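Two proteins, back to back. First:
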Amino acid sequence: MQELMRSNDAVLISFVDALLNDADIPHFVADVHMSILDGSIGVLPRRILVDPDHLDQARRILKDAELGHELS
Protein backbone atom coordinates (compact mmCIF):
# COMPACT_ATOMS: atom_id res chain seq x y z
CA MET A 1 0.00 0.00 0.00
CA GLN A 2 1.16 3.52 -0.77
CA GLU A 3 0.10 6.75 0.87
CA LEU A 4 -2.35 8.78 -1.17
CA MET A 5 -2.96 11.53 1.36
CA ARG A 6 -2.96 12.40 5.06
CA SER A 7 -5.10 14.86 6.96
CA ASN A 8 -6.41 15.79 10.39
CA ASP A 9 -9.77 16.66 8.80
CA ALA A 10 -12.11 13.73 9.55
CA VAL A 11 -14.72 15.03 7.10
CA LEU A 12 -12.17 15.18 4.28
CA ILE A 13 -10.94 11.66 5.07
CA SER A 14 -14.53 10.42 5.03
CA PHE A 15 -15.21 12.14 1.68
CA VAL A 16 -12.10 10.68 0.04
CA ASP A 17 -12.97 7.26 1.49
CA ALA A 18 -16.42 7.53 -0.14
CA LEU A 19 -14.90 8.60 -3.48
CA LEU A 20 -12.55 5.63 -3.50
CA ASN A 21 -15.30 3.23 -2.45
CA ASP A 22 -17.53 4.47 -5.29
CA ALA A 23 -14.68 3.87 -7.74
CA ASP A 24 -13.99 0.38 -6.32
CA ILE A 25 -10.39 1.32 -5.56
CA PRO A 26 -8.78 -0.90 -2.89
CA HIS A 27 -7.67 1.32 -0.02
CA PHE A 28 -7.24 1.48 3.74
CA VAL A 29 -7.74 4.36 6.15
CA ALA A 30 -4.84 4.11 8.60
CA ASP A 31 -4.38 5.67 12.03
CA VAL A 32 -8.13 5.92 12.71
CA HIS A 33 -7.72 4.87 16.32
CA MET A 34 -4.69 7.05 17.02
CA SER A 35 -6.97 9.65 18.66
CA ILE A 36 -6.71 7.52 21.80
CA LEU A 37 -3.04 8.51 22.02
CA ASP A 38 -3.54 12.23 21.35
CA GLY A 39 -6.51 12.61 23.71
CA SER A 40 -9.07 12.95 20.89
CA ILE A 41 -7.87 16.42 19.93
CA GLY A 42 -7.05 15.42 16.35
CA VAL A 43 -3.33 16.19 16.35
CA LEU A 44 -2.28 12.97 14.63
CA PRO A 45 -3.31 12.82 10.96
CA ARG A 46 -5.09 9.89 9.38
CA ARG A 47 -3.68 8.42 6.21
CA ILE A 48 -5.35 6.91 3.18
CA LEU A 49 -3.31 4.08 1.70
CA VAL A 50 -4.04 2.76 -1.80
CA ASP A 51 -3.05 -0.37 -3.65
CA PRO A 52 -0.09 0.61 -5.88
CA ASP A 53 -1.87 -0.72 -8.98
CA HIS A 54 -4.65 1.82 -8.43
CA LEU A 55 -2.61 4.79 -7.20
CA ASP A 56 -2.71 6.75 -10.48
CA GLN A 57 -6.47 6.28 -10.77
CA ALA A 58 -6.98 7.38 -7.15
CA ARG A 59 -4.83 10.47 -7.72
CA ARG A 60 -6.91 11.37 -10.81
CA ILE A 61 -10.13 11.03 -8.81
CA LEU A 62 -8.86 13.43 -6.16
CA LYS A 63 -7.68 15.90 -8.78
CA ASP A 64 -11.06 15.71 -10.53
CA ALA A 65 -12.72 16.45 -7.18
CA GLU A 66 -10.42 19.51 -6.86
CA LEU A 67 -8.52 17.89 -3.99
CA GLY A 68 -5.18 17.64 -5.76
CA HIS A 69 -3.61 19.92 -3.18
CA GLU A 70 -4.28 17.23 -0.53
CA LEU A 71 -2.21 14.54 -2.27
CA SER A 72 0.94 13.25 -0.57
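And the second protein:
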Amino acid sequence: MPTTTRYRRRRAALAVLLVAEAMNLLDATIVQVAGPAIHADLPGPAAGIPWFSAAYTLPFAAFLITGGRLGDIFGRARIFRVGVAGFALASLACAAAPDAGLLIGARAVQGAAAALIIPQTIGLIRALFDGAELAKALGTIGPVMGLSAVTGPLLGGLLTQAVSWRAVFLVNVPLGLAVLLAARLLREDRAATRPRLDVTGTLLVAGGAGLLVYPLIDPAGTDWGLLAAGAVLLVVFGFQQRRAAAPLVEPSLFAHRGFPAALAGSLLFFAVMTGLIQVVPMQLQLGSGADVRTAGLTLLPLSAGLAVSSYVAGARLVPKFGSRVMFAGLALLVTGVLAMEAGGVGAYPWALALCGLGMGTFTVPFFTAALERVRPHETGSAAGLLNAVQQLGGTLGVALLGGLYLGTGTAAAALGLGAALAVAAAVAVVPLGVRAAAPPARGSAPELSSRRGR
Protein backbone atom coordinates (compact mmCIF):
# COMPACT_ATOMS: atom_id res chain seq x y z
CA MET A 1 0.00 0.00 0.00
CA PRO A 2 1.41 3.48 -0.84
CA THR A 3 1.93 5.86 2.04
CA THR A 4 -0.31 8.89 2.33
CA THR A 5 2.57 11.19 1.40
CA ARG A 6 2.44 9.78 -2.15
CA TYR A 7 -0.96 11.32 -2.72
CA ARG A 8 0.16 13.86 -5.29
CA ARG A 9 -2.62 16.40 -4.67
CA ARG A 10 -2.10 16.50 -0.91
CA ARG A 11 -0.73 20.06 -0.82
CA ALA A 12 -3.64 21.43 -2.80
CA ALA A 13 -5.99 19.57 -0.44
CA LEU A 14 -4.16 21.10 2.53
CA ALA A 15 -4.75 24.57 1.05
CA VAL A 16 -8.49 23.81 0.92
CA LEU A 17 -8.52 22.93 4.63
CA LEU A 18 -6.50 26.01 5.57
CA VAL A 19 -8.88 28.32 3.68
CA ALA A 20 -11.77 26.79 5.64
CA GLU A 21 -9.90 27.39 8.91
CA ALA A 22 -9.21 31.00 7.91
CA MET A 23 -12.85 31.52 6.88
CA ASN A 24 -14.04 30.49 10.34
CA LEU A 25 -11.59 32.70 12.26
CA LEU A 26 -12.19 35.67 9.97
CA ASP A 27 -15.91 35.38 10.60
CA ALA A 28 -15.40 35.24 14.36
CA THR A 29 -13.32 38.46 14.47
CA ILE A 30 -14.62 40.49 11.54
CA VAL A 31 -18.12 40.93 13.00
CA GLN A 32 -16.94 42.34 16.33
CA VAL A 33 -15.66 45.47 14.58
CA ALA A 34 -18.80 45.80 12.45
CA GLY A 35 -21.25 45.27 15.36
CA PRO A 36 -22.05 48.95 16.11
CA ALA A 37 -22.52 49.68 12.39
CA ILE A 38 -24.94 46.75 12.12
CA HIS A 39 -26.87 48.07 15.12
CA ALA A 40 -27.08 51.54 13.55
CA ASP A 41 -28.61 50.09 10.37
CA LEU A 42 -30.95 47.40 11.73
CA PRO A 43 -33.86 48.01 14.10
CA GLY A 44 -33.32 46.63 17.58
CA PRO A 45 -31.88 47.53 21.01
CA ALA A 46 -28.17 48.08 21.62
CA ALA A 47 -28.19 44.93 23.76
CA GLY A 48 -28.27 43.00 20.48
CA ILE A 49 -24.68 44.00 19.60
CA PRO A 50 -22.97 41.33 21.77
CA TRP A 51 -25.36 38.74 20.34
CA PHE A 52 -23.95 39.28 16.83
CA SER A 53 -20.82 37.52 18.15
CA ALA A 54 -22.23 35.32 20.93
CA ALA A 55 -24.88 33.77 18.68
CA TYR A 56 -22.00 32.40 16.58
CA THR A 57 -19.58 31.22 19.27
CA LEU A 58 -22.17 29.61 21.56
CA PRO A 59 -23.42 26.89 19.15
CA PHE A 60 -19.87 26.53 17.85
CA ALA A 61 -18.71 25.65 21.38
CA ALA A 62 -21.72 23.47 22.20
CA PHE A 63 -21.59 21.29 19.06
CA LEU A 64 -17.82 21.16 18.46
CA ILE A 65 -17.21 17.73 19.99
CA THR A 66 -20.38 16.32 18.44
CA GLY A 67 -19.21 17.67 15.06
CA GLY A 68 -16.01 15.66 15.46
CA ARG A 69 -18.02 12.53 16.27
CA LEU A 70 -20.16 12.99 13.16
CA GLY A 71 -16.97 13.03 11.08
CA ASP A 72 -15.83 9.80 12.74
CA ILE A 73 -19.18 8.16 11.88
CA PHE A 74 -20.11 9.45 8.42
CA GLY A 75 -16.72 10.44 7.03
CA ARG A 76 -14.72 13.60 7.69
CA ALA A 77 -14.65 14.84 4.11
CA ARG A 78 -18.42 14.41 3.78
CA ILE A 79 -19.21 16.27 7.02
CA PHE A 80 -16.65 18.93 6.06
CA ARG A 81 -18.55 19.58 2.80
CA VAL A 82 -21.90 19.69 4.60
CA GLY A 83 -20.49 22.21 7.08
CA VAL A 84 -19.00 24.45 4.38
CA ALA A 85 -22.25 24.44 2.41
CA GLY A 86 -24.24 25.33 5.53
CA PHE A 87 -21.74 28.04 6.44
CA ALA A 88 -21.96 29.68 3.00
CA LEU A 89 -25.77 29.59 2.97
CA ALA A 90 -25.95 31.00 6.51
CA SER A 91 -23.52 33.77 5.50
CA LEU A 92 -25.83 34.69 2.62
CA ALA A 93 -28.76 34.77 5.04
CA CYS A 94 -26.78 37.05 7.40
CA ALA A 95 -26.02 39.46 4.56
CA ALA A 96 -29.69 39.61 3.57
CA ALA A 97 -31.12 39.86 7.13
CA PRO A 98 -33.78 42.60 7.36
CA ASP A 99 -33.63 42.87 11.17
CA ALA A 100 -31.41 42.04 14.11
CA GLY A 101 -33.40 38.99 15.21
CA LEU A 102 -33.04 37.20 11.89
CA LEU A 103 -29.36 38.11 11.74
CA ILE A 104 -28.77 36.59 15.17
CA GLY A 105 -30.60 33.42 14.10
CA ALA A 106 -28.51 33.13 10.94
CA ARG A 107 -25.35 33.67 13.01
CA ALA A 108 -26.36 30.70 15.20
CA VAL A 109 -26.65 28.52 12.07
CA GLN A 110 -23.20 29.75 11.01
CA GLY A 111 -21.75 28.69 14.36
CA ALA A 112 -23.32 25.24 14.16
CA ALA A 113 -21.94 24.84 10.62
CA ALA A 114 -18.46 25.88 11.82
CA ALA A 115 -18.72 23.14 14.47
CA LEU A 116 -18.99 20.65 11.59
CA ILE A 117 -16.02 22.10 9.69
CA ILE A 118 -13.26 22.72 12.23
CA PRO A 119 -13.07 19.28 13.96
CA GLN A 120 -12.51 17.57 10.60
CA THR A 121 -9.40 19.56 9.70
CA ILE A 122 -6.77 17.70 11.74
CA GLY A 123 -8.26 14.29 10.92
CA LEU A 124 -8.20 15.05 7.19
CA ILE A 125 -4.63 16.35 7.38
CA ARG A 126 -3.65 13.08 9.05
CA ALA A 127 -5.29 11.23 6.16
CA LEU A 128 -3.26 13.24 3.63
CA PHE A 129 0.21 13.21 5.22
CA ASP A 130 2.43 11.02 7.34
CA GLY A 131 5.91 11.09 8.81
CA ALA A 132 7.83 14.36 8.74
CA GLU A 133 5.36 15.86 6.25
CA LEU A 134 2.53 15.47 8.77
CA ALA A 135 4.31 17.65 11.34
CA LYS A 136 4.99 20.32 8.72
CA ALA A 137 1.37 20.25 7.53
CA LEU A 138 0.00 20.60 11.06
CA GLY A 139 2.47 23.43 11.63
CA THR A 140 0.82 25.51 8.90
CA ILE A 141 -2.38 25.91 10.94
CA GLY A 142 -0.83 28.32 13.46
CA PRO A 143 0.44 30.92 10.94
CA VAL A 144 -2.86 30.81 9.05
CA MET A 145 -4.78 31.45 12.27
CA GLY A 146 -2.39 34.26 13.21
CA LEU A 147 -2.77 35.90 9.79
CA SER A 148 -6.56 35.58 10.02
CA ALA A 149 -6.54 37.17 13.48
CA VAL A 150 -4.54 40.11 12.13
CA THR A 151 -6.65 40.46 8.98
CA GLY A 152 -10.13 40.05 10.53
CA PRO A 153 -10.56 43.37 12.39
CA LEU A 154 -8.89 45.35 9.59
CA LEU A 155 -10.97 43.71 6.86
CA GLY A 156 -14.15 44.19 8.89
CA GLY A 157 -13.46 47.89 9.28
CA LEU A 158 -12.50 48.45 5.65
CA LEU A 159 -15.42 46.51 4.14
CA THR A 160 -17.99 48.14 6.42
CA GLN A 161 -16.60 51.61 5.76
CA ALA A 162 -16.17 51.21 1.98
CA VAL A 163 -19.24 49.11 1.13
CA SER A 164 -21.58 47.99 3.93
CA TRP A 165 -21.64 45.70 6.93
CA ARG A 166 -23.41 43.20 4.67
CA ALA A 167 -20.17 42.78 2.72
CA VAL A 168 -18.61 41.37 5.91
CA PHE A 169 -20.82 38.31 5.51
CA LEU A 170 -20.89 38.20 1.72
CA VAL A 171 -17.12 37.68 1.64
CA ASN A 172 -17.74 34.15 2.98
CA VAL A 173 -19.91 33.16 0.01
CA PRO A 174 -17.22 33.05 -2.73
CA LEU A 175 -14.76 31.58 -0.23
CA GLY A 176 -17.25 28.86 0.70
CA LEU A 177 -18.06 28.07 -2.94
CA ALA A 178 -14.35 27.84 -3.79
CA VAL A 179 -13.76 25.45 -0.86
CA LEU A 180 -16.75 23.32 -1.89
CA LEU A 181 -15.54 23.06 -5.50
CA ALA A 182 -12.03 22.17 -4.38
CA ALA A 183 -13.18 19.72 -1.68
CA ARG A 184 -13.02 16.90 -4.24
CA LEU A 185 -9.25 16.96 -3.59
CA LEU A 186 -9.83 15.65 -0.07
CA ARG A 187 -9.45 11.96 0.73
CA GLU A 188 -12.29 10.45 2.72
CA ASP A 189 -11.40 9.39 6.23
CA ARG A 190 -13.36 8.05 9.19
CA ALA A 191 -12.71 6.32 12.50
CA ALA A 192 -11.75 2.66 12.33
CA THR A 193 -14.34 1.90 15.03
CA ARG A 194 -17.68 3.64 14.52
CA PRO A 195 -18.45 5.62 17.71
CA ARG A 196 -21.91 6.44 18.99
CA LEU A 197 -23.37 9.92 19.39
CA ASP A 198 -24.14 11.20 22.89
CA VAL A 199 -27.30 13.12 22.01
CA THR A 200 -28.33 13.59 25.64
CA GLY A 201 -24.95 15.03 26.58
CA THR A 202 -24.98 17.39 23.61
CA LEU A 203 -28.43 18.74 24.50
CA LEU A 204 -27.50 19.16 28.17
CA VAL A 205 -24.31 21.13 27.48
CA ALA A 206 -25.97 23.28 24.79
CA GLY A 207 -28.94 24.09 27.04
CA GLY A 208 -26.77 24.77 30.08
CA ALA A 209 -24.37 27.06 28.22
CA GLY A 210 -27.25 28.94 26.58
CA LEU A 211 -29.03 29.53 29.89
CA LEU A 212 -25.80 30.84 31.43
CA VAL A 213 -24.97 33.23 28.59
CA TYR A 214 -28.42 34.64 27.78
CA PRO A 215 -29.06 36.56 31.05
CA LEU A 216 -25.47 37.86 31.20
CA ILE A 217 -25.84 39.80 27.95
CA ASP A 218 -28.98 41.63 29.12
CA PRO A 219 -27.81 44.99 30.53
CA ALA A 220 -31.19 45.60 32.18
CA GLY A 221 -30.50 43.06 34.89
CA THR A 222 -29.36 39.50 35.46
CA ASP A 223 -32.00 36.77 35.61
CA TRP A 224 -30.61 34.64 38.42
CA GLY A 225 -33.22 31.97 37.82
CA LEU A 226 -31.91 31.32 34.31
CA LEU A 227 -28.33 31.34 35.57
CA ALA A 228 -29.21 28.77 38.23
CA ALA A 229 -31.00 26.60 35.68
CA GLY A 230 -27.98 26.72 33.38
CA ALA A 231 -25.63 25.76 36.22
CA VAL A 232 -27.91 22.85 37.19
CA LEU A 233 -27.96 21.54 33.61
CA LEU A 234 -24.17 21.63 33.43
CA VAL A 235 -23.91 19.74 36.74
CA VAL A 236 -26.37 17.15 35.39
CA PHE A 237 -24.18 16.95 32.26
CA GLY A 238 -21.17 16.13 34.45
CA PHE A 239 -23.00 13.27 36.18
CA GLN A 240 -24.44 12.05 32.87
CA GLN A 241 -20.96 11.83 31.33
CA ARG A 242 -19.81 9.47 34.09
CA ARG A 243 -22.59 7.03 33.20
CA ALA A 244 -22.89 7.47 29.42
CA ALA A 245 -21.95 4.52 27.22
CA ALA A 246 -20.26 6.86 24.69
CA PRO A 247 -19.51 10.10 26.60
CA LEU A 248 -18.56 13.32 24.84
CA VAL A 249 -15.69 13.71 27.33
CA GLU A 250 -13.23 11.08 28.62
CA PRO A 251 -13.92 10.92 32.41
CA SER A 252 -10.29 9.93 33.08
CA LEU A 253 -9.19 13.46 32.08
CA PHE A 254 -10.51 14.71 35.42
CA ALA A 255 -8.66 12.18 37.57
CA HIS A 256 -5.99 14.77 38.43
CA ARG A 257 -6.20 18.51 38.95
CA GLY A 258 -4.02 19.58 36.01
CA PHE A 259 -6.58 19.25 33.23
CA PRO A 260 -9.50 20.86 35.13
CA ALA A 261 -7.11 23.74 35.91
CA ALA A 262 -6.40 24.00 32.17
CA LEU A 263 -10.12 24.20 31.42
CA ALA A 264 -10.68 26.91 34.06
CA GLY A 265 -7.69 28.90 32.83
CA SER A 266 -8.80 28.60 29.19
CA LEU A 267 -12.34 29.71 30.04
CA LEU A 268 -11.17 32.82 31.89
CA PHE A 269 -8.35 33.75 29.50
CA PHE A 270 -10.46 33.59 26.35
CA ALA A 271 -13.26 35.46 28.11
CA VAL A 272 -10.80 38.35 28.55
CA MET A 273 -9.36 38.05 25.05
CA THR A 274 -12.67 37.94 23.17
CA GLY A 275 -14.39 40.39 25.51
CA LEU A 276 -11.67 42.98 24.81
CA ILE A 277 -12.09 42.63 21.07
CA GLN A 278 -15.82 43.24 21.63
CA VAL A 279 -15.62 46.21 24.02
CA VAL A 280 -12.86 48.23 22.34
CA PRO A 281 -14.68 48.71 18.99
CA MET A 282 -17.95 49.48 20.84
CA GLN A 283 -16.25 52.13 22.98
CA LEU A 284 -14.52 53.70 19.98
CA GLN A 285 -17.67 53.83 17.84
CA LEU A 286 -20.47 54.30 20.38
CA GLY A 287 -18.54 56.23 23.03
CA SER A 288 -15.97 58.24 21.06
CA GLY A 289 -17.72 58.61 17.68
CA ALA A 290 -14.90 56.98 15.70
CA ASP A 291 -15.70 55.36 12.36
CA VAL A 292 -15.56 51.62 11.83
CA ARG A 293 -12.29 51.76 9.88
CA THR A 294 -10.55 53.50 12.79
CA ALA A 295 -11.90 50.85 15.17
CA GLY A 296 -10.47 48.10 12.99
CA LEU A 297 -7.07 49.79 12.73
CA THR A 298 -6.95 50.31 16.49
CA LEU A 299 -7.04 46.54 17.01
CA LEU A 300 -4.03 45.98 14.73
CA PRO A 301 -1.44 46.39 17.54
CA LEU A 302 -3.18 43.62 19.48
CA SER A 303 -3.15 41.25 16.49
CA ALA A 304 0.46 42.11 15.61
CA GLY A 305 1.60 41.62 19.21
CA LEU A 306 -0.19 38.26 19.31
CA ALA A 307 1.47 37.08 16.08
CA VAL A 308 4.99 38.18 17.10
CA SER A 309 4.87 36.87 20.65
CA SER A 310 3.41 33.50 19.56
CA TYR A 311 6.44 32.95 17.34
CA VAL A 312 8.97 34.15 19.92
CA ALA A 313 7.38 32.11 22.71
CA GLY A 314 7.38 28.93 20.64
CA ALA A 315 10.86 29.36 19.17
CA ARG A 316 12.75 30.92 22.09
CA LEU A 317 10.99 31.33 25.42
CA VAL A 318 9.24 28.01 26.02
CA PRO A 319 12.28 25.85 25.14
CA LYS A 320 14.34 27.88 27.63
CA PHE A 321 11.91 28.68 30.48
CA GLY A 322 9.11 26.12 30.08
CA SER A 323 5.58 26.63 31.41
CA ARG A 324 6.60 29.60 33.60
CA VAL A 325 6.35 31.76 30.46
CA MET A 326 2.54 31.67 30.59
CA PHE A 327 2.50 33.62 33.87
CA ALA A 328 4.60 36.36 32.26
CA GLY A 329 2.04 36.45 29.44
CA LEU A 330 -0.82 36.90 31.89
CA ALA A 331 1.11 39.68 33.66
CA LEU A 332 1.51 41.53 30.33
CA LEU A 333 -2.20 41.06 29.60
CA VAL A 334 -3.26 42.47 32.99
CA THR A 335 -0.88 45.43 32.56
CA GLY A 336 -2.34 46.22 29.14
CA VAL A 337 -5.94 46.01 30.33
CA LEU A 338 -5.26 48.22 33.35
CA ALA A 339 -3.45 50.73 31.11
CA MET A 340 -6.53 50.98 28.88
CA GLU A 341 -8.76 51.42 31.92
CA ALA A 342 -6.56 54.19 33.37
CA GLY A 343 -5.48 55.94 30.15
CA GLY A 344 -8.70 55.81 28.14
CA VAL A 345 -8.91 55.80 24.36
CA GLY A 346 -5.57 57.59 23.96
CA ALA A 347 -3.76 54.65 25.56
CA TYR A 348 -5.49 52.00 23.44
CA PRO A 349 -2.82 51.46 20.71
CA TRP A 350 0.18 50.74 22.96
CA ALA A 351 -1.93 49.09 25.69
CA LEU A 352 -3.49 46.77 23.12
CA ALA A 353 0.01 45.92 21.87
CA LEU A 354 0.85 44.86 25.45
CA CYS A 355 -2.31 42.76 25.56
CA GLY A 356 -1.40 41.07 22.28
CA LEU A 357 2.13 40.31 23.49
CA GLY A 358 0.66 38.80 26.64
CA MET A 359 -1.87 36.70 24.73
CA GLY A 360 0.73 35.13 22.46
CA THR A 361 3.18 34.58 25.31
CA PHE A 362 0.46 32.79 27.28
CA THR A 363 -1.20 30.58 24.66
CA VAL A 364 1.85 28.66 23.38
CA PRO A 365 3.08 27.29 26.75
CA PHE A 366 -0.49 26.96 28.04
CA PHE A 367 -1.68 24.48 25.41
CA THR A 368 1.64 22.63 25.53
CA ALA A 369 1.33 22.19 29.32
CA ALA A 370 -2.39 21.38 29.14
CA LEU A 371 -1.89 18.48 26.73
CA GLU A 372 1.56 17.38 27.92
CA ARG A 373 0.41 14.43 30.04
CA VAL A 374 -2.74 13.55 28.18
CA ARG A 375 -2.49 9.95 27.03
CA PRO A 376 -3.06 8.86 23.41
CA HIS A 377 -6.59 7.54 23.90
CA GLU A 378 -7.55 10.85 25.62
CA THR A 379 -6.03 13.22 23.05
CA GLY A 380 -9.10 13.69 20.84
CA SER A 381 -11.41 14.28 23.78
CA ALA A 382 -8.93 16.62 25.50
CA ALA A 383 -8.28 18.73 22.39
CA GLY A 384 -11.98 18.92 21.56
CA LEU A 385 -12.91 19.90 25.11
CA LEU A 386 -10.20 22.58 25.31
CA ASN A 387 -11.38 24.02 22.00
CA ALA A 388 -15.01 23.97 23.11
CA VAL A 389 -14.19 25.64 26.45
CA GLN A 390 -12.14 28.24 24.56
CA GLN A 391 -15.19 29.12 22.46
CA LEU A 392 -17.46 29.10 25.52
CA GLY A 393 -15.03 31.42 27.30
CA GLY A 394 -15.17 33.78 24.33
CA THR A 395 -18.95 33.73 24.47
CA LEU A 396 -18.96 34.50 28.21
CA GLY A 397 -16.44 37.31 27.66
CA VAL A 398 -18.67 38.92 25.04
CA ALA A 399 -21.66 38.52 27.36
CA LEU A 400 -19.99 39.79 30.54
CA LEU A 401 -17.79 42.59 29.22
CA GLY A 402 -20.13 43.64 26.41
CA GLY A 403 -23.20 43.52 28.65
CA LEU A 404 -21.43 45.48 31.39
CA TYR A 405 -20.33 48.15 28.91
CA LEU A 406 -23.85 48.55 27.53
CA GLY A 407 -25.30 48.61 31.03
CA THR A 408 -22.93 51.26 32.41
CA GLY A 409 -22.15 53.26 29.26
CA THR A 410 -18.42 53.25 30.09
CA ALA A 411 -15.57 50.98 29.10
CA ALA A 412 -13.76 51.38 32.44
CA ALA A 413 -16.07 48.98 34.30
CA ALA A 414 -15.81 46.35 31.58
CA LEU A 415 -12.02 46.68 31.41
CA GLY A 416 -11.80 46.40 35.19
CA LEU A 417 -13.74 43.15 35.02
CA GLY A 418 -11.44 42.00 32.23
CA ALA A 419 -8.39 42.61 34.42
CA ALA A 420 -10.02 40.69 37.29
CA LEU A 421 -10.74 37.74 34.98
CA ALA A 422 -7.13 37.74 33.78
CA VAL A 423 -5.90 37.61 37.39
CA ALA A 424 -8.36 34.78 38.07
CA ALA A 425 -6.96 32.94 35.03
CA ALA A 426 -3.46 33.21 36.55
CA VAL A 427 -4.72 31.70 39.81
CA ALA A 428 -6.58 28.96 37.94
CA VAL A 429 -3.54 27.80 35.97
CA VAL A 430 -1.19 27.64 39.00
CA PRO A 431 -1.94 23.90 39.49
CA LEU A 432 -1.33 23.38 35.78
CA GLY A 433 2.08 25.08 35.98
CA VAL A 434 3.03 23.05 39.04
CA ARG A 435 1.90 19.84 37.39
CA ALA A 436 3.79 20.58 34.16
CA ALA A 437 7.00 21.34 36.08
CA ALA A 438 6.82 18.29 38.34
CA PRO A 439 8.11 14.86 37.24
CA PRO A 440 5.36 12.35 36.44
CA ALA A 441 4.27 10.27 39.40
CA ARG A 442 5.24 6.61 39.28
CA GLY A 443 2.47 4.33 38.27
CA SER A 444 0.02 7.13 37.60
CA ALA A 445 -0.77 6.06 34.08
CA PRO A 446 -1.36 2.37 34.94
CA GLU A 447 -3.54 3.47 37.85
CA LEU A 448 -5.71 5.55 35.56
CA SER A 449 -5.81 2.79 33.00
CA SER A 450 -7.01 0.30 35.59
CA ARG A 451 -9.70 2.72 36.70
CA ARG A 452 -10.85 3.12 33.14
CA GLY A 453 -11.09 -0.60 32.70
CA ARG A 454 -13.32 -1.13 35.73
